[in-house]
Amino acid sequence: MAKTKTEKITSIEEEIRQLENRRRQLVQEQKAQERKDRTKRLCRRMGLFESMLPDTITLTDEQFKTFLEQTVAAEPSRRILGELTAQNAATAAVKAAEPAAQS
Questions:
Q1: What Cα–Cα distance (Å) separates residue 67 from each residue in 13, 56, 60, 89?
Q2: What does each C-alpha distance from 40 to 43, 68, 86, 95, 99 come to in angstroms?
Q3: Taking 70 as the threshold, does the pLDDT of residue 24 lie above it?
Q4: Which sign does the torsion angle of CA 42, 47, 48, 52 carry?
């Protein structure tokens, strides 16, 4: 038996609600994964940092912050960071161009 227009509208509205709920769920999952990735990256990088500079382990948070601020503000650090970020940008541009070239 064919559905009436009212039944079709109700069915479509229910489908829209389900899709919106699924979308919200996927957004939450994406945010959770981004938090996990960030936590993992922070732990890995700080572990590497402490293994290379074990003297920083005994510093207070304020002392460590001062150390980082002064280290990062130094010209050699800025130059190295600039070179590395430029290198990453160039690599990303090449990767972005590859699919276009294959099409």
A1: 58, 9, 10, 28
A2: 5, 20, 24, 25, 30
A3: yes
A4: positive
Contacts of 64 (CB under 8 A, 6+ apart): 56
Query: In the predicted model, what is the mean pLDDT of residues 41-54?
Result: 95
Q: How far is CA 83 from the centre of its chain?
A: 21
Q: Tell me, what amino acid is at 12? A: I
3-state DSSP percent of the chain in helix, strand and coil, to 5: 90, 0, 10
pTM: 0.68
Is the pLDDT at 16 greater than 60, yes or no? yes
**Taking the CA atoms of the chain, what radius of gyration do you get in angstroms?**
25
Helix pair 61-73, 75-102: axis angle to 10 deg: 70
Look up residue 87 and give its two tokens: 């290198």
Place of tokens 């479509």: 12
- Predicted pLDDT of residue 9: 95
